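Q: How would the structure tokens look for this protein?
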Amino acid sequence: MKKFWNGKEISEKNLVDLITECSKDNWKNSDLFRETEIACEIIAYEDYEGKEEDIECIIEKLKGDGATLFDLEKAIQNGEWYFMESDTWKKYNKRRM
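A: Here is the predicted structure in token form.
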């Protein structure tokens, strides 16, 4: 069974805990793209329509591919996600343009 880099089982709770821990530490030494960090924070902290589906899909991808922060980034970098419909994501992308 694949696990997160911190040794914990890949699950919804542990995914949210990992994101929360990294976010509280200001993503120190993560080397992720800022948009990945924003997406992760939306997934962990916000309630939005489709959140459960996003998390289920991410968990499935991580179980198959691995479970580091880079694997998480790779899992969400392609495709359409419900978090992309959140106000936070839209505001972030509007500022980038």
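The chain has one domain: 12-96.

The longest helix spans residues 51-65.

Upvote if useful.
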